[in-house]
Design goal:
- This protein has a single domain (2-85), classed as (Glycosyl)asparaginase (Glutamine Phosphoribosylpyrophosphate, subunit 1, domain 1).
- It is built from three helices and five strands; from the N terminus they run E-H-H-H-E-E-E-E.
- Helix content is 38%, strand content 29%.
- The protein is globular and about 40 Å long.
- A hairpin with a 5-residue loop joins strand 2 and strand 3.
Length: 89
């Protein structure tokens, strides 16, 4: 898990731990957990930022509620995916 944003909100919400707990204890898919925390809980607190996360079994997810966040991923056999702004995949 890599996270960036307004630190006070990330600490108050324990963003990384909360996402991990949703996956581990509620059985959520990683992207669903990221979306719940970033677009739901963090946004409701008026916090901003984003995360890039990966599970041991290879799930990769990211989410952010800011105009942009530098990000990239490469999945074996797939194309490189690079983005900056929120309207890019």
């Amino acid at each position: 898990m890599s996270a960036t944003g307004t630190g006070e909100y990330f600490i108050r919400l324990t963003v990384a731990r909360t996402i991990c707990a949703l996956v581990q204890y509620k059985g959520m898919r990683l992207q669903a957990a990221v979306d719940d925390v970033i677009h739901g809980q963090l946004t409701a607190m008026k916090g901003d930022g984003g995360v890039i996360a990966m599970t041991p079994d290879g799930q990769i997810a990211w989410g952010f509620n800011t105009p942009g966040m530098f990000r990239a991923r490469l999945i074996e056999g797939g194309a490189v995916q690079v983005g900056i702004y929120n309207d890019e995949p």
